[in-house]
Amino acid sequence: MALADVKALTFDVFGTVVDLRGSIIREGKAISESKGLNINWEDLFDRWRPAYGKRVEQVSSGELPWANLDVLHLEALEEVLAELGITEFTEHDKHVLNMGWHRLTPWPDSIPGLTRLRKLYILATLSNGHFALLTNMAKHSDIPWDCILAPDILGNHYKPEPEVYHGAARLLDLNIGEVMMVAAHKPDLKAAHDQGMMTAFVPKPLEYGPGVEIDTTGEPWLDFMATDLEDMASQLE
Length: 237
Prior knowledge:
This protein is α/β, with parallel strands linked by helices. It has helices at residues 20-34, 41-61, 69-84, 91-98, 110-117, 131-141, 162-171, 186-194, 229-236, and strands spanning 8-11, 122-126, 147-149, 179-183, 198-201, 224-225. The chain folds into two domains: 3-19 and 105-236, HAD superfamily/HAD-like (Rossmann fold), CATH 3.40.50.1000; 20-103, Putative phosphatase, domain 2 (DNA polymerase, domain 1, Orthogonal Bundle). The mean pLDDT is 97.
């Protein structure tokens, strides 16, 4: 299949469309400041993200039973709080912070870029966030998806399991080569490519914080590259 055959774009969301790290750090600071606590939220988040990622991998491997990201995020948060010796958070505090994943703020290019791309393609999420989380996030920030595809409506599978990519094409009633995966993360794109999807790499230089170098080089299995979603729309219009 070629770029001209693409009819739908499926998007990674965390880090690609929304500023995951910055949003959670802001949520956390608001909670800790209200309690008079001095917490290094940059460090806490940089521990939290891989801790929940490990749990996602364990669910995919069968080591852990199926659970959505609200459950996995909360388990990982409690692990990190214990690791850092932070005991002042109530159950309510942890719940509010955990639900911050439903309120993540889009990158500046996301809404205008997606709005332009939606005139050309079907736009769908293809994230490890579950249906309720992605729906709440879209409602909160007016993200213009045509539909939300999530693990809990794709047979309880997490990326990069093949069932996710094939399930997306099936639900969109398209050949898998008519769908292009858009992400800031090469492993996600490589997995999509291996299942027959087209791929678009849109790196986010600030995803892991200022001063953290990211890989923005091309790969033979990347079909398309853009600096951000507005640049992607400009190239495709």
